Amino acid sequence: MxxxxxxxxxxxxxxxxxxxxxxxxxxxxxxxxxxTGLRPVKHTKSGKSMTQSLWLNNNVLNDLKDFSQxxxxxxxxxxxLAWIDLSFNDLTSIxxxxxxxxxxxxxxxxxxxxxxxxxxxxLSVLPRLRSLTLHGNPIEEEKGYRQYVLCNLPxxxxxxxxxxxxxxxxxxxxxxRMNIKPKKVRVKQDAx
Length: 192
Description:
Layout: H1 3-9, E1 16-17, E2 53-55, H2 67-74, E3 83-85, E4 106-108, E5 131-133, H3 145-152, E6 158-159, E7 162-163, H4 166-179
Parallel strand pairs: 1-2, 2-3, 3-4, 4-5, 5-6
Antiparallel strand pairs: 6-7
Helix pairs in contact: 3-4
């Protein structure tokens, strides 16, 4: 199967679903059986899944140590991972490993313990990210939460399960001008 065929067919594949498994560490995924849905996930002869979606929601993960390595063991094409659901875990930050999946378009992080709004900046390198959830994290209580996210992730079209409107973008731009100071350019003394 060519890479193009894979990209076209696996979008319809059901997710590799490890939700509600009481998983504490990512390495446990290797020995844990995923949930079975109405349609089975297709696997290669070597046992790797042919899906682009990984659901790890409603577990007790507090970090993503070894995430890339484990995903490579589970998925035939980890580079094509498009949807990661990490909602309702115990994550306190956005692990940089998530930024290595350049085809990621859906990322659910709601219901965690992320407390620094600046963590969102890490996601700006994901060119295909369109849907993001962060509600239910302590950062939601910060003033300008929604505007900050929209300013830093201008390509997303859905945030916290709500579509982004032109008015949202305008409000975010006004908020940015009022709240984010431009970086000062220092003039070298020698140049004067």
